[in-house]
User: Fold this.
Amino acid sequence: MASLPGMNDLTSALGQALGLVAGGDAALGHIVLLSLRVSLTAVGLAALVGLPLGALLAVARFPGRGGVVVALNALMGLPPVVAGLLIYILLSRSGPLGSLGLLFTPTAMVIAQALLIAPILAALTRQVLEAMWEEYAEQLRSFGAGPWRAVPTLLWDGRFALLTVLLAGFGRASAEVGAVMIVGGNIEGFTRVMTTAIALETSKGDLPLALALGLVLMAIVLTVNALAQGLRDLAARQAG
Amino acid sequence: MLRRLLLLALLALPLPLAAQERSITVASTTSTEQSGLFGHILPIFTRETGIAVRVVALGTGQALDVGRRGDADVVFVHDRVAEQRFVAEGHGGPRQHVMLNDFVLVGPADDPAGIAGSRDTAAALQRIAAARAPFISRGDRSGTHAAELRLWQQAGVDPTAGRGAWYREIGQGMGPTLNTAAAQGAYAMTDRGTWLAFRNRQGLRVVVEGDARLFNQYGVMLVNPQRHSHVKQADGQRFIDWIVSPAGQAAIASYRINGEQLFFPNATQPEPVS
Assistant:
């Protein structure tokens, strides 16, 4: 008796997922677009900080560098709920940045996700570029390029490997629920994204719908990854 | 080409986030949101006034905290004692009655405490404790949690003595509490609205209902604009005036799940002075 209903839930979830996508549900469309917008913007913001920081750590040698690297690696494990709480307290009307009125807005969600993934981008970038730097260091130095001048060169030469780094950040951002729930408030039609919608349907006990939304989310992430891969191949051919 | 594409994408992304509309933020409870009541009445209000209502659904305790911090314009919750404290401390108010709903006790089909069909909540809770039958508590400072604790007190039972054994506080919302009770074959207290909208019942069913002690009063308050100057006083007050008006009260009364009315408007009853 116990196993059959479970199977029914799975098939029903698959059916509902197809129905949701095929039906072009307007509410779902808004949720999907907002998820993409928030997570992609967060990746963009985090990349502005994370990539140069990672590259700099790859080439520069200074006292305390080891500590910074360890701290960055540890911050990759920052719990989303903690990041969410931190941003909540900062953006709350009673907090230091309260006058901006950003709590319970998509912008707050972007900030929280950017905070979560910036350390990931920086740590992974450092690792990727450090390997390259070991190969290129002599060559770049012979052109008279110091560490500072080497950063843009390394970033550009490592762009294909860094795409994977960006996708890792995007994966973490789009899969995250704890932080966006706290700072976004899961407001219908305004700050509800895929993961908070899944959490909501789970708590309403509508497990097939929750699972269906999960399948849609997976399909979106798959599409973004496929597009990125396609762009990469295209660019590699042009460059090659 | 790649760079130009990426640049375009980056430039386009933030634009839609900046879209502005006239709106208020209401901190409310999971029972009003998850039962579908807000989905029914808020579009009516927005159509009449052009004011969009953004609902942040939390437990009553958290919703009042959001109001205290000034992160909402209106608080719409159901724990009269906590609400009166909120008003007395100057965080908002005055508080107005809006509507009633009721709680039910749900439990597994085999009913190990033997309470199915009872209308006496106190006796039922005593039997659950005596049988050491598993009971899932919200444990999250919500209005439902506060009501549950008052019922245990009235029954003369200290459930926390069974903590870690049969009394299980999960610190989550109504839905997760019902999911847990369904999975563990346990008893739980829930508001009727969430129960009727809940889909994952498995063997769970209503065992106790209809006790006068199970009625649950909702109240609404404007967050104090003197304390938080950004509070949208006019639009927030407009929402409060509407929800206690005949139009708002009729909208509440007209919400049904499977023909069953969930919320009973009673804004005309004056708030007793405490």
In short: Chain A has a mean pLDDT of 89. The domain at 30-192 of chain A is CATH 1.10.3720.10 (MetI-like fold). Chain A touches chain B at residues 33, 37, 40-41, 44, 92-95, 98-99, 101, 103-107, 110, 185-188, 190-191, 200, 202-207, 231, 234-235, 238 (CB under 8 Å).
